[in-house]
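Lab notebook page, bench 4
Experiment: in silico fold of construct C2
Operator: M.H.
Input chain length: 404 residues
Purpose: comparison with the prior construct
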Amino acid sequence: CCLSGKGHHIAVPSPDISHKGLRTKRAQPSDPKALKVLPRPSSQRHEGPEFSFDLLPEARTIQVTIPPGPEVSVRLCHQWVLECEELSSPFDTQKIVSGGHTVDLPYEFFLPCLCIEVSYLQEDTVRRKKCPFQNWPEAYGSDLAYGSDFWKSVHFTDYSQHSQMIMALTLRCPLKLEASLCQKWGWNTLCEDLPNATARESEGWYVLEGIDLHPQLCFKFSFGNSSHVECPHQTAPSWPSWNVSMDTQGQQLVLHISSRIHATFSAAWSHPSLGQDSLVPPVYSISQTQGSNLVTLELIIPFLKPGSCVLVWRSDVQFSWKHLLCPDVSHRHLGLLILALLALTTLLGIVLVFIRRRRPLSGPGRARPVLLLHVANSEAQRRLVGALAELLRASLGGGRDVIV
């Protein structure tokens, strides 16, 4: 283990880990005749045993074939700088194989640093090692036929806090990954790269500064043509550190912003047809300055027009997730429609009274048409005006025309 500067312990591969005695255990031949078939020390020291292998990805196994000769010890390991480290249990077996036979060695993950190591049972013998997968793209998770073993083998630990995204990685191969910030618009959508958002790395720790922590602002780790998205997975009740809700009051929208941190929040109207991140000035802002206790702020903004949505985000950091809220103003439309109906009914009553008062004074001849003017912005309003016209025509009688 190592202790980071932030006081967290993480497990990292170390050349000093225990190998349960397998690396140091050497069996002595019990049959004196066996000494005659062992290779000469000089040959053994410089070459080691010969062997061949076959990769069986469907069975997740490497089949090792030993040519005729003495018994050998065979194992799989992960090559690091100083030594080849054994695999984790139960894949850390070391098998004794007779010459002219084969052995199947299962592996947990198909990785570029996966090696095959073979040695004679005699002490102080040279081990022959082959690491054939270093140049295989499949070993880096770029081939779906082999699965994503490389990324499954990485252990991610989330230490994000305040305005920092922090992720510690434990790798099984000595590779240096690149990391950047990306944003997901939905849980099952691709993570879009954000510009100028490269993570700082130090000894397996990846840090991004000036971030509004949110489950959909994520790390994107990459190596070569292969990449993996890892999102913060905090489970604390206080996370995320802020949220927003809304209601309407007359011609205003009231945003209720609850926050546990010192922060500044902004809001602006947006047209979804112009893109999920489009803003319509002006921008309204409010700040939480009361410490770490939960504080609810109210930000009041005037309505723009029907069909618009509002974006709310934390504006005191460089990268922030924008919450998109679309107020339901259908009840306001219904109220306006009712008012329009009452107004038209009143107008109709006035017209009827006026016409009945004038009818006795009218002489014979063709009745003059009635002109009904209106401004209708929707199909429902047009249907309402048509119904009023029919009612007016029936009330007037006498074949009086009503022109809408």
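Observations: The CA atoms of residues 161 and 386 lie 62 Å apart. The chain has five helices and 27 strands.
Next step: discuss at group meeting.
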